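Ex. 9. Protein: Adenosylhomocysteinase.
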Amino acid sequence: MDFDIKNIDLAPGGRHRIEWAEQEMPVLRGIQQQFTSDRPFAGLRISACMHVTTETANLMVSLQAGGADVVLSASNPLSTQDDVAASLVSHYEIPVYAIKGEDNETYFKHLNAALDHNPHIVMDDGADLVSTIHKSRRNLIDNMIGGTEETTTGIIRLRAMAADGALQFPMMAVNDALTKHMFDNRYGTGQSTIDGIVRATNVLVAGKNVVVAGYGWCSRGIAMRARGLGGNVIVTEIDPLKALEAVMDGYRVMPMMEAAAIGDIFVSATGDIHVFDEHHFMAMKDGALLSNSGHFDVEINKPALEKLSTNGPKRVRPFVEQYTMKHNGHRLNLLGEGRLINLAAAEGHPASVMDMSFAGQAMAAKYLIDNKDKLENRVYTIPQEVDQEIARIKLDAMGIYIDTLTAEQVAYLNSWEEGT
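Predicted structure tokens for Adenosylhomocysteinase:
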């Protein structure tokens, strides 16, 4: 078995952490038991490009239990948990290509190693596997059944491909499932982002001006958790509806240029480029913290930050690089190299919320198999009945039960004769 990881001797600790996470993932556990019985992926190869964490490990093991020949590569150079990678290789015999802190050359080498697996299905977190197949590995297309995508950023890329007629196989938009973006994005990103910022800096959030760029589901969660810790939250937006929602939720809303001058902690989670840019850096206070919770490290314009600084970055803490501005001597602190702060400096989302997201991934892959002769080369959402089943299983695992409609109520809702 080929693989490329940091140190195989880290495997025992990784296994303990994988098993710890599994205790918090009852939905995926139930799906794994069903997969073990039905073997829906028997004879199929799945290549995954995802954050190599304890939660992802449990998804890989579930796919393997369903008969899949699985390979995993990292979807972010700083998100890999090296002990988890070692355990997957050592204890589960799943090839992994991921090393925390790998450079870009190694990152893309690992992507291509996963594609050397000649997959029938790809599981993506940012659409790097899919875009690589379409750009430089087109020989793999004829063998593809389809793929799944985990992130808002990735789905933006996939929908652009589909709109251009470039997408050559069907993709499942797992991020669009309600049990994913309403929970993983909001509660997972909200908690883990603040966790990453605090671990990296040991800063007190209370009393600070926390500037949150965007008000999508991830940013909603970040704003909610920052306010919960006593932060004075400012939201910036380009969408008038989302901006209005942020106002109604009790946040201050203003243009980024205004927020730049008063913010203490900055977080971006938009999926777009240069959300924090040169003119913003010029206006920021001494000691400002810059962080990103969007998938790619482009939301903070790092080349501009470097250009404006005196001698480049100074590492002042393990995940903090400090830039001293030439024009006024202010020190701006970039967290986690501008990459996903919740995975660079912390452990990512808690297992209990990833349970639903990865249940969606597993069920989306099965949906591709079950419907492979019916699907077109476009982006599909998770069927509503799958979403509801995931939510039902999650509630059961939490010991929470809900009402069901009576026959009379069903009849009323399906009739048009009744009324005032």
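Check your answer against this statement. The CA atoms of residues 68 and 158 lie 24 Å apart.
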